[in-house]
Amino acid sequence: MLIAAQLLFGIIEHRWELVLAVVYLALAALAMVYGASVAATPEGERKICLTLASGFLLAGLLSVIMQNTQFLGLDLSPVVMFMSHHTAAVFRPYANVAQPNQLALLLCMALASVWWLYRQARLPAAAAATLALLLVWGLSLTQSRIGWIIAPAFIFILWPRAAQEKPVGKFLLLSLLFAYMGFVLAMPALAALVGVDASSVTEHIGGRSERTVLMQQALRMSLEHPWFGVGWFGFGSEQVRIAADFTPTTYAEHSHNLVLNFAAELGWPATIALGAALFAWFFSIYRHAGDSASLRFAGMIFGATLVHSMVEFPLWYAFVLIPVAVLMGMVHQIHWLTAPVKVAHGAVITAASVAIFVMALMTLDYQRVQDGFKALRLQKEGYSYDKQALLKPEWTLYPYFFDYFKLMGVQPHEGMSAAEIAFVEGASRRFGFVHTLNTMAEVYVLNGQPKQALRTMITLQHLHPFSYNAYYDYWKAKGAVDPLRYGFVFERLPARMKD
Questions:
Q1: CA 103, CA 82: separation in Å to the nearest integer?
Q2: How far apart are CA 495 and CA 260, in angstroms?
Q3: Are 92 and 196 a contacting pair, CB within 8 Å?
Q4: H/E stretch holding 437
């Protein structure tokens, strides 16, 4: 209903992305139904936990192996993503997961899996302790602060045990926690041994906090649009509009906080209602959880995901959302003992066939986007390219990418029509990259809107502070040639940042 209202009032700008989001969330709903239905069968909950725990543990251990090859500077590409040691940035190996915090969450899920497999007598004590230590080492390599919260939380969850529970020694739990703390504290020295830099605990705590500003921006969006929000997936566009009013941060498509992101994009009534419903659901289940290993395993996964959701948006990743949805269906079934959903085999085969067909179409459609980016790169490098690949097809699930290709071909000039300027404005808000913001600023300055040009350049500096100097120098050079327009803006730009 809320999304329908957003569409009705024209709040949602990116409607095709909404379609993809609805499909994604529908898959999560089906995963919940699947989890509940399997849990209703004999040994169902054990089968679900065994499958997920085995998958998480295998993925976690493979990732730790990959991390160590990256940490040692070994090049095993294309099997393992290569990470060069010759970088000025802090070195945070993340295997093939593409983001350190996402890998940290996966490793925490793997740690929960070690406990469940040990509890079910599928891992001997020595093997479980060894695997847990390896995963703790991998968690420290990510240098992710979510581990600082999740690891003690796991100890808190596992500390009490029922009389009939296969014991996990409290000395072992504390030893693993202290090992993790030791790895974290020693990481700068250990990293120096292999020739890379790592952040110390002090630097992590006192460093530049981009997330704080992102959350402030989300709060302002929610207060300016309290009832229906800025629209599903609208955070990035709205951030471009208001970023000049905040201290420098980074361009992002979400607020890095699940609650504030929902408040910004959906409004406070929906956010409060959703939060209250989830809290009531969890409270009803876990106040009588007792000694259920399945419930405790699910609770550890839920807790880790919740912690990560306060600083990122992990539920946008299928490897997080789908298992979490399956576990939600499972614990719902365990607590309420609802009747399983029975679906005819023919319906399952039909649904699976349709899903495979749609995925094939989406893949083929996205291949056209890939071809467009290849053509764009060839064009930039001065080679011949397929011009047709940059043109928007009559039908595509990804029209915004073709708008981006069109935007990259825009040459700012005097006398641009209102429609041309509106297109640049819309596409630049959708893709708030440093070069698109500069294009928008030049369109403004060449078409009699110097104040908008100045504000856009301030936005560029606030969203891309580390790229700002190059554009500062560019506007300085242009201002020397065109003092009435570029020079007017340049004289009012924020100072050049220290190199």
A1: 16
A2: 32
A3: no
A4: helix 434-446
Query: What's the token pair of residue 432?
Result: 């708030």
Look up residue 464 and give its amino acid.
H
Chain position carrying tokens 């926690």: 177
Residue from 60, 20, 52, 21 nearest 35 by CA: 52
pLDDT at 166: 64
Instruction: Sort residue 382 into left (φ over 0), alpha (ψ -120 to 50) or beta.
Output: left
| Joined tokens for residue 239 | 């951030």
Contact 310, 258 (CB under 8 A): yes
Mean pLDDT over each residue of the chain, to the nearest integer: 89
pLDDT number for residue 88:
66
Give the DSSP per-residue string, 154-187. HHHHHSS--TTSPP--HHHHHHHHHHHHHHHHHH
Residue 232 Rama label (left phi>0; alpha psi -120 to 50; beta): beta
Ordered alpha helix ranges (H), 381-467: 399-408, 418-430, 434-446, 450-463
The pLDDT-based confidence of 64 (bands split at 50, 70, 90) is: very high
Whether the CB-CB separation of 36 and 109 falls below 8 Å is answered with: no
Packed helices 399-408 and 418-430: angle between N→C axes, nearest 10 degrees: 120
Contact 91, 191 (CB under 8 A): yes
pLDDT at residue 73 greater than cutoff 70: yes
Which position has the token pair 């925490």?
108
- Per-residue pLDDT tens digits for 94-109: 998 878 999 999 999 9
pTM of the shown model: 0.87
Tell me the CA end-to-end span of the chain in Å, nearest whole number: 50
